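User: As part of a screening pipeline, I want to sanity-check one entry by hand. Below is the sequence and the SMILES for pyridoxal-5'-phosphate. Please return the complex as structure tokens so I can compare it with the automated output.
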Amino acid sequence: MNGNLRALKPYPMAELQARKSALIGRGMRVYDFGTGDPIEPTPAFIVEAARQAIPRVSQYPSVAGTPTLRRAATDYLRRRFAVTVDADTQVLPSAGSKEAIFHLPLAFLDPASGRDTVVYGTPGYPVYQHGTLFAHGREHPVVLERERGYRLDLGRLPSEVLRRTAIAWLNYPHNPTGACVDRAYLRDQAAIAAGNGILLASDECYQDLWFADAAEPPPSMLEVATTGVLAFHSCSKRSGMTGYRSGFIAGDPALIKAYRGWRAAMGVGSQAFVESAAAAAWSDDAHAQDRRAVFADKYRVLVDGLRALGIDALPSSAGLYIWAQVPGGGDADAYAARCLEAGIVVSPGGFFGAGADGWFRLALVPSLDDCRAALAIWPRTGVGGRGSGVG
Ligand SMILES: Cc1ncc(COP(=O)(O)O)c(C=O)c1O
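Assistant: Here is the complex for your manual check:
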């Protein structure tokens, strides 16, 4: 067995699923705010596009993807971010962002060269770390602080870390905290990455899920730089397609060329009929608007409801999550277990790495009615913290 496999903790969301199934097996009503896997149906025109494209003769897909999908992706980038990239040289489809994120260090880390480090923020999406370890890279997690708006600032890293860094990951709107950033921040980070020869990877899978009162839709890294930069987009949350597995990577043509060449060895080309559905999804903005309105409604009900219970839920203007503090202080794992006993699945902060003690995450998944029903039974106190009566 790969020793790095042995060193890893179980994937947190798999653990949540197991706990949830056990509760359902006991006949309990469960409100699942755990995994960020929305329940709203995939829009009918997307399903139909997939159905129409299932071929009579099925042949291997190409890693470069269909020209139709690449064109739909570039048209989307132009409409949404006013960014112009070339459909043939600057876009590459992925079988969902997760695999593309995981595989990136396998393609772009060369530990023997001294450029062996991957920088990422924590708490954060665990796959930045997993991909690094499997590629035998050196991880450099940076604890993101509330006082700094959970922003990862490459400019604060020691110069010896910058010198060793091959890849730096950014992810705004941020999973799990819901933090957002502006173009000035992205511009600064792009300049620091460029000055240090670092591949700047921007995970942008929540870019289209802004809440109604957001001052401005979340920007893309591609608005401020394409050289040395890759942006990772996904159909999953924007279009209700988590099960389809489709996304794209866009940015620096030299990096895209290298990644495409390497991915051909991997068998990660996605099915042409999935790519047809994805092309339909990227070509339409109305459904994305409808979906973000649904998430915005859930966000409002939950944040207001939690605050009314005395729970400190951080303000956010985009994404799919609420980041909240365990009421009264205390351990997030124990609090998540207490929630589970009530039939409410939340993710304790520790699922997302260091720097998240005493916090938990809610994914905006259950229906509005279920959000309200869950709030009615929500545990108001942590375990072992102030006001819990335990310690
Ligand atoms: C920050 C972040 N990046 C990437 C992904 C993966 O998305 P996909 O479904 O495109 O693989 C997720 C999924 O939850 C995520 O939270």
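Points to compare against the pipeline: The domain at 3-42+287-376 is CATH 3.90.1150.10 (Aspartate Aminotransferase, domain 1). The chain has 14 helices and twelve strands.
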